[in-house]
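User: Fold this; tokens only.

Assistant: Input:
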Amino acid sequence: MKKFLAITAIVLGLGVQAQNTNPKKESGIELIPKAGINIANQSIKNVNGEKSKTSFQAGLGVNIQTGIKNFSVQPEVNFISKGTKFKNSLGSETYNFNYIEVPVLAKYSFGPVYVNAGPSIGILMGKNDKVKAAYGKTKSIDFGLQMGAGVAIPAGPGKVIVDGRYNLGLNNISDEKGIDVKNRGFALSLGYAIPL
């Protein structure tokens, strides 16, 4: 038993030493699970009284180094709740539009701080009867632009990511004649970049 423990200690010691002398070569790819909030609103033509609503958003990003210093590309798949809230003398109504959204962002880093921007496409996951009654026919695709900034703080083998982003909807999501509805929103998320 003593011999077994001694051999195990030697093997583990050699393994640690080998790991220290030959560090794992990074692939330049990071996997980023993240979650946070989306402060959503809508721009509705000829309608006043829209208020922001706070909702949930979460997803997974893959940050890929391009070989150009400080520049990377980050595609993502996110669940995000958009929509708006109306308040009047009778109370308030909240309208939720839930999307699976796929942005592809160009990302430039200044040390731990970065900026990013790029196009996105959202696929509507469905709508309830309240939304149908208020909006009528709506389109299932939402095209937009995302732009923002964040900070990557080294922690353990990876980095803690704090990201703020503005989402600008470009297309009219209403399919009703004479009605123009566009999504807007500011998303704040916390994530962790895992090097692969």
